[in-house]
Design a protein that fits this description.
single chain; alpha+beta; D-Maltodextrin-Binding Protein, domain 2; Dipeptide-binding Protein, domain 1; Dipeptide-binding Protein, domain 3; 3 domains; eleven-stranded mixed β-sheet; globular
Length: about 550
């Protein structure tokens, strides 16, 4: 797999000069030996960012590739969106739009209409304006390409592109996650001229993306390295890149004990664990759109009781639990609606510390009495539950152990068990897994629905199928606009707090390594965008 784009041909003279130039940047490790792609070179650049990454894109096609590395390393810096996710996790208009879209639902037909007004200055990398025909072409290509995600797009009945600067999108029924249609976290806007009348994009753009409108342009990509080059004349001054070139190299063995980080590397994107690296690197963190918490699987009989859930809340000190994950106790999450800082929060869950007396009083009131063996139960049911945890989630095993200790001391029959995240969240799972220590995706209507909904197609990890949250979840799925969506999420958050549906602990963060003496990171980046989020705002600190 390897490709160099025709739009990048203007870089060929620079590449040749770089090959011939003495002192050209090479990928050498701290001992002077070549690492990564030893044969490769870069065009001359005023500023250069060198990145080593463990995970590598397996595909690039924006329609069919659900690959995290493809999104984080390439697509989000090259391919535009209509709506974006900001640092708080909210949907906001991208620079491609002239402003916020108009969203309306026809009270007679039930159709939802979203009117996207495009910015006159918005341009593709080849200089052509971004138009409503690109919006229509993206929709048509997604629907014509097998394997492309079509959620929401399959509700679209028409995209009016008569006015080049106005895309009027009509859906046959309201869809609350409409910002994901051509943007959001997973959606993209494609250049219709890049594929023409052949709308089936199967096997197209799999190993190269030849179009874009972002701050960077992809100029080369293979199994070992990729190069992004900044647009020196980008149409949006706010997105003008501060670093001219970004070279990313694949180091799948970086986590091995004998692996070394090349001396030219500025930033390391690790795999599941941080590798041992030279002291010049500092750990940097970026918040992710997920909250780590104690989830109650109500299919486990004792957990169906509100009294037991209240007793568990009283038995553990959540501030102590987050410290086990090396998180500041002051960062404890109290919001059960959407993400921390999101206005759609609902009633907040207070933390008053652990109380043995309160725990025992609640359990006795709820009918869980202590037997001769010191264990609690009812005549027909022992107070027993496993504590499942994600073995790959940092701090989860320690948190599960602390929960076991706290509950065993109050007469619970309890034991910790590792259960992979995929198993806990498996939609067709029948096994009751008790209390779970997992990161729960939150922040959009679809994610909140997955947590609280029990209908077809949801992966409810709580077994929380009471009528009231189900009614709210159904109304969330058809919320006509952002205001109603947030109002429903806030109601769900309040209901979750009142019923102790789950106990949030802390917002998950992704960790990576950066040489802070060389690279200045932006203060804010889009939530969930990974270590290279807001790449255009990176700066060299040593220049």
């Amino acid at each position: 797999m390897g490709h160099t784009a025709s739009p990048a041909r203007r870089w060929a003279p620079l590449l040749l000069l770089a090959i011939l130039a003495a002192g050209c940047s090479t990928f050498a490790d701290d001992d002077g030996d070549a690492g990564g792609s030893p044969e490769s070179t870069l065009p001359a650049a005023a500023t250069l960012l060198r990145v080593a990454t463990v995970d590598w894109p397996s595909c690039l096609n924006p329609l069919t590739c659900a690959d995290g590395p493809a999104r984080d390393l390439v697509l989000e810096h090259v391919v535009p969106k209509l709506m974006e996710v900001d640092a708080a996790g909210s949907y906001v208009p991208s620079p491609v739009l002239a402003g916020a879209p108009d969203v309306a639902v026809d009270p007679v037909t039930g159709e939802q209409t979203i009117v996207f007004v495009l910015a006159e200055e918005a341009r593709w990398h080849d200089g052509r304006p971004i138009t409503s025909s690109d919006v229509r072409g993206t929709w048509e290509a997604r629907m014509a390409t097998p394997g492309a995600a079509t959620a929401g797009h399959d509700l679209i009945t028409a995209v009016d592109d008569v006015d080049p600067l106005v895309a009027r999108v009509t859906l046959r029924q309201p869809w609350s996650d409409w910002p994901e249609l051509f943007g959001g976290e997973q959606g993209w806007l494609l250049q219709a001229d890049a594929f023409g009348p052949d709308l089936d994009l199967t096997a197209r753009f799999d190993d190269f993306v030849s179009f874009g409108a972002g701050p960077y342009e992809l100029v080369s990509f293979d199994e070992q390295s990729l190069v992004l080059v900044a647009r020196s004349d980008h149409w949006d001054p706010e997105r003008q890149a501060g670093i001219d070139q970004v070279r990313i190299d694949h180091f799948p063995d970086l986590g091995d004990a004998d692996a070394s980080v090349p001396g030219s590397i500025d930033l390391v994107v690790p795999g599941d664990e941080l590798p041992e690296v030279p002291g010049r690197f500092a750990v940097a963190m970026r918040p992710e759109p997920a909250v780590v918490g104690l989830l109650f699987d109500r299919r486990t009989p004792p957990l169906a009781s509100l009294g037991v859930r209240l007793a568990i809340d009283a038995a553990v000190d959540r501030r102590d639990l987050v410290e086990l994950a090396e998180v500041d106790p002051d960062d404890l999450v109290t919001c059960l609606g959407a993400l921390p800082g999101d206005e759609a929060c609902g009633e907040q869950l207070a933390e008053e510390g652990a109380s043995v007396e309160e725990t025992d009083a609640i359990l006795v009131f709820d009918g869980w009495l202590v037997g001769p063996d010191g264990r609690r139960g009812r005549p027909d049911l022992p107070l027993a539950t496993p504590v499942s945890y994600d073995p790959l989630l940092e701090g989860a095993e320690d948190i599960a152990g602390a929960v076991v200790d706290a509950l065993a001391g109050r007469g619970f029959i309890v034991a910790a068990q590792p259960v992979p995240e995929a198993e806990w969240f498996r939609p067709d799972r029948q096994e009751a897994l008790g209390i779970g220590v997992y990161a729960t995706p939150l922040g959009t209507a679809a994610r909140v629905l997955a947590l609280h909904g029990c209908g077809e197609g949801t992966a409810n990890p709580l077994g929380w199928c009471d009528p009231e949250p189900q009614d709210l979840a159904r109304s969330l799925a058809t919320a006509p606009d952002e205001d109603r969506r947030r109002a429903v999420i806030e109601e769900l958050g309040s209901l979750a707090a009142e019923s102790v549906a789950w106990l949030p602990l802390h917002q998950r963060s992704g960790r990576f390594l950066v040489d802070a003496d060389r690279i200045e990171l932006p203060d804010l980046a889009p939530l969930g965008s990974g270590p290279l989020g807001a790449l255009h705002a990176f700066e060299r600190a040593d220049r």
